[in-house]
Amino acid sequence: MLYAILKTLHLLSIILWVGGMAFVLFFLRPALGSLQPPQRVTLMHDVLRRFFGAVSAAVVIVLASGLWMMADFASGASASGVRMPMSWMVMATLGLLMMAVYGHVRFVLYKRLQRAVASSEWSAGGAALGSIRVWVLANLFIGLVIIGVLMLL
Ligand code: HEM
Prior knowledge:
Order of helices and strands: HHHH
Oligomer: single chain
Bound molecules: protoporphyrin IX containing FE
Number of strands: 0
Radius of gyration: 18 Å
C-alpha cells in the first residue's frame, strides 16, 4: 500500500514537472510575443516564481519516493537474487541530471532574471529568459527520454 502511494506521488510530481515545462515552452511563452518587454519579462518572472516553487516540491517528492522504492526493491531482491531493472538505473541517473539542470535554472538563471526585474533591465531580463528556455527545453527532452526508456526497456 505504501509503495503504491509513493509511486502515485512520484508520477503526479513528474506530470506536474514535465507537463508544466511543456506548457510554459509551447503555450505560454509564444502567446506573450505581442507584449512589450517590461510586461513580458515581469509576467514570465511571476509565472516562473510560482512554477519553480511547485517544481522544487516535486523534485523533493520524486527523489524521496524514487529512492524509497529502490531501497524497498533492493531489500526484497537481495533475498531472492532478482536484479534491479536497467530502466530504473537509467531513470535514476538521468533523473539526477534533470535535478542538477533544474538547480542551475532555479538558482543561477532565475536569480539573474530576478536581479534584472528588480533593476528594470529588460534586455538583461530577456537574455536570462532566453537561457532559461534553452535549459528547460533540455530538461524536457531528458524527461521524455526517461519516459521513453521506461516504456520501451
Ligand atoms: C533520482 C530520481 C528517480 C528515482 C530514484 C526514481 C525511481 C523510481 C522507482 C524505483 C520507480 C518504481 C518503478 C516500479 O515500481 O515499477 C519509479 C517509477 C517511475 N518513474 Fe522514477 N525515479 C526518478 C526520477 C524519475 C524521473 C525524472 C521521471 C520522468 C521524467 C520518472 C518517471 C517514472 C515513471 C513514469 C515511473 C512509473 C514506471 C512504471 O510504472 O512502469 N522517474 N521511479
